[in-house]
Amino acid sequence: MATNYQSSKETTNFARICRLVIDVIPDLLRDLLNTRLPASGLSAVLTTQKRKIFSVLKQHQKNILYPQGGVFQGSVKDLDTSLLYILLRNIGNIPSHHQSWGNAPDIADRSLSANIDRLREQRNAAFAHAPNASLSDGDFQASWDIIRQSVEEIQNSELNTGRFVVAVDEMLTMEMDHRGTNKYIKELLVVIKGDMAGMSVKLDTIETDMADLQGNVGAVMDDVSAVRYDVSAVRDDVGAVRDDVGDVRDDVGAVRDDVGAVRDDVSAVRDDVGAVRDDVSAVRNDVGAVRDDVGAVKEQLTVISVDRGNKPRRAAIETTKSTVRGQTSRSEIISTQALEDAKEVIRKNGMVIIKDASGDGKTMMCYQLLKWLMDGDNKDTGLSKDPLQLYSMSKWDKIVQPEAQIALFIDDVSEDIVEELKRRKDSIQSAFCGTLNSRSNCLILNVRDEIFKSTQMSSCELFNDENAIDLRGKNLMTSEEKLQILEKYVPKIKVLSGGKESKFVKLAPKIGFPQCCRLYRDVPSLQNEGVDFFKSPVYFMEKTLKKLPKECFASLLFLFLNDGRVKKGDLDPNSENVDKKKLEIAFPGNALNVWTDIQFLQGFIRWLSGKNDDKNLCHEIKLALLNRACASGSEECALFLLSEGVTPDVETPFYVVEGGSVSVLRKLLEYDVTQTARLHMSRSPHIVLARNINVLQEACLFESEEMVTMLYNTYPHLVHDTDHRGQSTLQLGARTGNCDIFKTVERVVLKSLYRVEYEHHRCETVEGRVVHRNCVCAQYVCQLVTKYGGETVLHYSCRRGHMEVCKYLCESYPALTTAVDMFGGQTVLHYSCLGGHLEVCKYLCESYPALTTAVDKYRQTVLHSSCRGGHMEVCKYLCQSYPALTTAVDMFGGQTVLHYSCLGGHMEVCKYLCKSYPALTTAVNNDGQTVLHSSFRGGHMEVCKYLCESYPALTTAVNNDGQTVLHSSCRGGHMEVCKYLCESYPALTTAVDNDGQTVLHSSCRGGHMEVCKYLCESYPALTTAVDNDGQTVLHSSCRGGHMEVCKYLCESYPALTTAVDMFGGQTVLHYSCLGGHMEVCKYLCESYPALTTAVNNDGQTVLHSSCREGHMEVCKYLCESYPALTTAVDNRGYHCLHYIARWTSDIDLFTECEIHVKQYIESTGRKYDITTILTNQGSSVLDKAKEQIEDWTWGTVNKALLKLKCTLKKPRSTSVLGLYIQRPIYYLVQSL
Questions:
Q1: Average pLDDT, stretch 94-123?
Q2: Count of CB atoms within 10 A of residue 430's CB?
Q3: Please, are residues 942 and 134 in contact by the beta-carbon 8 Å criterion?
Q4: How distant, in Å, are the alpha carbons of 229, 264, 287, 972 from that of 217?
Q5: Closest by alpha carbon to 1099, among 1129, 1130, 1073, 1127?
Q6: Which of 991, 990, 1071, 989 is nearest to 1030 (CA)?
Q7: Which pLDDT value is given to residue 58?
Q8: Average pLDDT, stretch 241-250?
Q9: Max mean pLDDT range (468-477, 492-501, 669-678, 1016-1025)
Q10: SS3 call for 902
Q11: What is the SS3 assignment for 652-719?
Q12: Which parts of the sequence belong to the Novel STAND NTPase domain (predicted)?
């Protein structure tokens, strides 16, 4: 079985998708959430919005965001995709798409929320719903395109970066198999070990040489000793001479000269010994150098070993390298003086901070620095560094180590990251600070100017101005550099500007120039503005402000402080005339939340009231401020705006409920709008398709007991309203799963039901609790069912697994336990099993055992429901507790529970049933289909493969129609499954069913292009096969109206276009006209004109076929394009109007065709008279209409009507209107 898990192109496709889902999508969502958070940070938002967020979290998510006894201390980088999705949806101020959050968006909907939901769906498809760890090329490309487009649109509209699309593109082609890399590492280790062995031999030689040298030095010393001895002997001889021959002094002088010569020789020997000593010292130094080289090699081996062991870091480095190469290869990149200054700072200090405003190109400069460090300073590879972009400070300690030779990059440093960096001051000091050398690390920080100032980042000595590059101050881009950038972005700028491109640079603002150039290039309408755009780049400011959270209205505050005007230089802190006091008030570094800032609102309302602008516009502005203040829960601001005379609209009460302010709601009750307001779609965190709901119902969904009680006491009638699906307030309360809120709603509902005359139907009390059996309360609650499905409140709670609510309803309203819905007659136990809620399921089974044997209107048991949902725990519990359920079959098709699990592709449940109840593997349904047929019909590869390999006999089984499992998979268009069967069981490719249809017929009938093409190219004989009626595969595709398949077959196998069937001699155009498929019909007519005049064995044209089936569009096209067909008759003399009158009741179709018939006849010089259009038997059009009415009224008790119909005479008028007034076809049918 090991071969089942070999790597393949399909598993690599799956791995690439997983890389996107695990690495890119979470980082994208993190950046997006950061842009949506206020400056106060995530922890503050979680505290203020706890009521809104807490109820939608699962328990483990609550433990993360709301730890017991404390507050969330992490950052956005610590959140997984699920939490990021929840926060973006609930606190990101992102409008819902048309299908609402949590649902699949429309294809044409490219809104932000739609793209987020698309990424969520792709993540679920890769993990939660993937049947196996492989993806076909087609499925892979489809998923990849969806993800890339969504990522690109989110990036371009919301984020100031290009790295995510680059990451997606790089990941598409990057090497996924690291075996080659490991091979190279092993080869490198072999070479290094060989070099070290050579060094060891050299060291041994050096040691031998030194030993020999020491021996020579010893010999020299012996010679010196011998000389000294000889000199001593000479001295003795001289003394003797002096004693014996005192008078021979001349000879003694000669001896002295000889002794002097000897002394000179001794001195020379001493010099030689000194030289030898120097040589020995040099050898020692050489040995030390060799030892240092060996140590360096060992360190390099250690680094290689660490890198091999730290795969995530190596992967992060490779990803960063790919991003850097992609970013720095863009054509618009230039080298600026600021870049050179940044390099010098790194050479000197080992770190640099790049700071500026949005759009000034700081991120690109950081990538340029990383590329420079990758290559090594001055192309010196010994100084090269591994670039690594850090996204989460939680990974700092695992990555940052002294002398690791990395260039660490942190993009878009936030306030939280600044605090983390300050806390790691010692780590930065030891790992990064110092001059650039071969073993040092480098740190590059990208921080916005406002963050740098608001966090007082410069107060830390590591982040002072000496380490900073200020792109808005001392390192401002020069005019020459701006001109270079402009020409890079817009090569035709000389033409577009009329040679005045320098004016663009001169008038451009001092912030965001690269971004302005990009916008000027990418938005054609801006090119029409010319220099005016650069002079006042409103579009750039709009795009930039959109990246800020909606609460950030500092710019509006500055406008207010500056009398509603902004002059050139007013916002430039380097300007000589700037009012720094106003700038400091408006832009203190902390974002201003206007919905909660009472001073701003008071001042803004006064300013707005003093304007002579459109009063309606002013009211709309005030109303928008009121609604947002209500939604944010700011009581002071909301009450102030109401006191200023702002009139709430129909949405205001719902914003109040969302904000949770009871005081504001109490004030709002003074306005009539509260009781009549209706909301199109609930804003509650519960995934509820509740539309057209009132305020009380919204309060229930937000689980606010105090608001529910207040609204009921004021407007008691609201409690009985229902939404568009007939859901009552009580049912919506049950959907929340909050038993307290449900009881609150129940209490006010039951209170409204009390009447004195109902005293004799009192509620019962059992063991201290109220039980509603025959009382009016029980009657009311039991009849509360939805409009379309007929679900009770207990159905709701069981479907969602709300145990507490479920138990309370069962005990309080016993009649609910036996209720069934209107849709399929399903019990509450069916609902809990379908949802896979084991706790609720066990409670219902044990408390109400009769439910375990209940079946719905299709005779589906509760085990069928659990198997259909693929819920293993529930399935296993039911099988073991109630064995009789395992043999039950439904009434819909005689399908077993194994059929259901195979059809749904639930592998775990399928394997359990097969092993535990082997008899199920041979069971067939009423159509003779095995469980393998069901799995192939669903296209579930893992289940299919398991059944084929475990039960080979199933692969040759056929159903009642003689269809094999390959027929089923081809009909469903499941390419992967189809290919597996063809290659594993080739005999299936030639099998035909009872109608003589091949598997290619099945795929063409289903219109599955990929499967069709594969079968045609792999098994060419199938393309000429015909079934028992002589229908080709092209007949099948035309009858189904599958344009792509039809076109492929026509162009690839042109002989098929002239084929006719054996049943009636009908062409492929006849088949498309019978099916009413306009696109296919038009293609065949225009591509193969001869088909338009073809008739079948009965002489019927293609117009006869379309008229008989009543296809208006096709009939009209044929009449207009080929008018000669309007007078053609078949072998029995039937005209197209005969066909319409005999086999349809479509007056509009008859009228349309008659107009064309009349026009064509009169164009030939003849007179049109409908009474002359007769069959070979002399039957008129009206006669055929009578025959149709006879068919309709046959057997009816209205004999008088039948007699009247049969005695009708021919119409007196030949006009279309007269014909239909006098002929009873339409009016008689309407009165039957």
A1: 88
A2: 14
A3: no
A4: 19, 19, 20, 96
A5: 1130
A6: 1071
A7: 85
A8: 53
A9: 1016-1025
A10: helix
A11: HHHHHHHHCCHHHHHHHCCCCHHHHCCECCCCCCCCCCCCCECHHHHHHHCCCHHHHHHHHHHCHHHH
A12: 335-490
Q: What integer pLDDT is reported at residue 880 of this predicted model?
A: 95
Query: What backbone phi and psi angles, to 5 degrees, belong to 770?
Result: -85, 135
Q: Which spans in 1076-1211 are helix H?
A: 1078-1087, 1102-1109, 1112-1121, 1136-1143, 1147-1163, 1181-1193, 1199-1206
pLDDT band at 1020 (very low <50, low <70, confident <90, very high): very high
Question: Which among 582, 542, 587 has a CA at the least distance from the CA of 562?
Answer: 582
pLDDT band at 452 (very low <50, low <70, confident <90, very high): confident
Count of positions (residues) in the chain: 1232
Angle at 249 between CA 243 and CA 252, to 5 degrees: 80
Distance spanning both ends of the chain, measured CA to CA:
68
237-276 b/e with 16+ CB inside 10 Å = b?
eeeeeeeeeeeeeeeeeebeeeeeeeeeeeeeeeeeeeee
Residue type, 202: K
Q: Which two structure tokens, joined as six digits, stand for 498? A: 């009329």
Residue 48 confidence (pLDDT): 78
The residues facing 445 across adjacent strands are 353, 410
CA distances from 566 to 99, 132, 572, 579 (A): 41, 60, 11, 11
Whether 47 has a pLDDT exceeding 90, the answer reads no
Question: Going by C-beta distance under 8 Å and a sequence separation of 6 or more, which residues neighbour residue 284?
Answer: none
Find, among 844, 721, 833, the residue nearest to 784 by Cα.
721
- List the chain domain ranges: 2-177, 311-475, 477-552
Cβ-Cβ contacts under 8 Å for 81 (sequence gap 6 or more): 21, 25, 26, 29, 120, 123
Please state the rounded mean pLDDT for residues 118-143.
79
The three-class DSSP label of residue 406 is strand
Across 528-542, 788-802, 903-917, which has the greatest mean pLDDT? 903-917
Query: Could you write out the DSSP letters of every residue in 1004-1073?
Result: HHHT-HHHHHHHHHH-GGGGG---TT---HHHHHHHHT-HHHHHHHHHH-GGGGG---TTT---HHHHHH
208 CB-near residues (< 8 Å, 6+ apart): none
Burial 24-50 (b: 16+ CB within 10 A, else e): bbbbbbbbbbbebbbbebbeebbebbe
CATH of the domain spanning 311-475, picked from 1.10.240.10, 3.40.50.300, 3.40.50.1970, 3.90.700.10? 3.40.50.300
At 1144, the pLDDT band (50, 70, 90 cuts) reads confident
Q: Which residues of 1070-1079 are buried (b: 16+ CB within 10 A; e: fewer)?
A: bbbbbbbbbe
652 φ/ψ angles, rounded to the nearest 5 degrees: -55, -45
The torsion angles phi and psi of 882, rounded to 5 degrees, stand at -135, 75
Stretch among 27-36, 274-283, 1046-1055 having the lowest mean pLDDT: 274-283
pLDDT score of 1190 more than 90: no
Q: How far apart are CA 319 and CA 313, in angstroms?
A: 10
Strands 442-448 and 406-413: parallel
Q: Do the beta carbons of residue 540 and residue 516 sit within 8 Å? A: yes
Residue 921 CB-half CA count within 13 A: 21
Average pLDDT along the chain: 79
Give 264-300 as a DSSP string. Answer: HHHHHHHHHHHHHHHHHHHHHHHHHHHHHHHHHHHHH
Q: Is 1162 exposed, middle or buried (0-12, 13-18, 19+ CB in 10 A)?
A: exposed
Report whether 947 contacts 981 (CB < 8 A). no
Hey, what are 392's tokens?
Answer: 């989460």
Q: What percent of the chain has pLDDT over 70?
A: 75
| DSSP, res 763 | P
- Tell me the pLDDT band of 954, cut-offs 50, 70 and 90: very high
pTM: 0.50
Q: In this structure, what token pair is assigned to residue 66?
A: 């709301």
